[in-house]
Write a structure and sequence with these properties.
Number of strands: 12
CATH superfamily: Lipid/polyisoprenoid-binding, YceI-like
Helix content: under 10%
CATH architecture: Beta Barrel
Radius of gyration: 16 Å
Strand content: 35-45%
Number of helices: 2
Largest sheet: 12 strands, antiparallel
Distance between the termini: 27 Å
Order of helices and strands: HEEEEEEHEEEEEE
Shape: globular
CATH topology: Lipocalin
Number of domains: 1
Amino acid sequence: MGLLLLVALACPFAEEQGERVWSAEDSYAEFAVSTLGFFSAGGVFRGLSGRLLLDRGQVIIEAEIAVESLEGLRESERRWALGPAFFDAAHHPRIFFQSEPIPCAALQGAGSIPGQLSIKGVRRPVRFELSAPSCARAGLDCPLEAKGVIRRTSFSLGRGALALGDRILLRLSIRLARETARE
């Protein structure tokens, strides 16, 4: 999903303390649920925000998705996805990801980002895989992209939905904000 490349972009700033935030207007998350072995049903979350926490050569990635920002579905599908059987937006309005601390120097190439994902109050370890950037200044001139697959049943998503497979593909497209926040 480009998170590793996001960190690689931040590496020149690794000696600085503080954070680097994402551009909320230019960043989003997508999900697709497997049906009959294919990823087909899904939507886009426009409410993706996050930051890189930089501290002495280590980087922690934090991401937050506003569940109500879901779009790209028919209205009946959206109501079901936001309802208690799937994301339960009324009781769990946010999805969170926090990476493990990552040495900046170890992230100069493609790889994976391990961390913890929280959906519906359930926290599980996950790993996102990075895509190669399409420009020299990934995160600024082009989006960083990373993806991961989670088990639907591990997060209590879609109870009773027999037609859905157990795999959910999550994909992030991230652009950094031009300014850097300081702590």
